[in-house]
Amino acid sequence: MEKLEGDHPVVETILQYRTLAKLKSTYVDALPALVRRDTGRVHTNFNQTVTATGRLSSSNPNLQNIPIRSEFSRRIRQAFIPQEGWLLASADYSQIELRILAHLSQEPTLIEGFRSGEDVHTLTARLLFEKQEVTSEERRLAKTINYGVIYGMGAQRFARTAGVSLAEAKEFLRRFNERYAGVFAYLRATEAFVEEHGYVETILGRRRYFPNLSQLSGHRKQAELRAAVNAPIQGSASDIIKVAMVRLQEKLQSFRSRLLLQVHDELVFEVEPSEWQDLQPLIQREMEGAVSLSIPLVVDIQIGHNCKEAN
After folding, report:
1. Containing domain of residue 224, as a range?
2. pTM of structure
3. Within a domain: 184
4. How many domains does the chain have?
5. Identity of the highest mean pLDDT range in 116-130, 174-188, 283-297
């Protein structure tokens, strides 16, 4: 349907209907029925061993997938509130997967960019378009390719995602390869390692095995290689936030405020307002100091009266 958007007015209407219908059935209708009578709250189950990458997943209901992009979905987020008189705080690792990629690949341009506090998507856009001042659209393309490389995005998928021609996509990937040679060297080295040893490791040494790789060929083998290349990056992000959670939970014993949720690279806290002045630097320090990398970890913290404000 998305490919037909613009060809006929009814297509946009159908897509909008599908989006609103899914939001209504998944959240507006379902969540009130999941409120527990004894606490008046919605409680989720966190699963430790479901995802292949090691990230926590959430179920019954899934509170890691509350929408935010549209105005209607942001209104849904306003329904998530703390206990009366308290606040919600969100502490989010900034571009953690790209920072991990910089650390693992030791790509000097990326490392220097993160150490200097430069916006890495703008940096990539400047390198790809070979100019100092880039537009928001050029930055968007750079962001797409930055994250696309992590997930093994090829030229065809990049062309579809970025809305460019296949020839343009191939040229962008070629330039990225030239400008960030260390990244591509790391990706190829990881592929060679997993083919020889049958596993990859996160920064903290947790392994993910790919035992049947030698028996695969064609598209199936390429898919497994993409997963293997991605595993140390996503897996390390998972390890880092878990280390932060364990350390913070210990420190929170002396506070009334509490750690409420983990949402991918973000921790959500329910905060007693009088404790925030002491709690904010504690969260910043423990999350940013969870591990030592070649470049600094950065945590963005926001606070508000509901889930929408805290994001």
Report:
1. 97-230
2. 0.88
3. yes
4. 2
5. 283-297
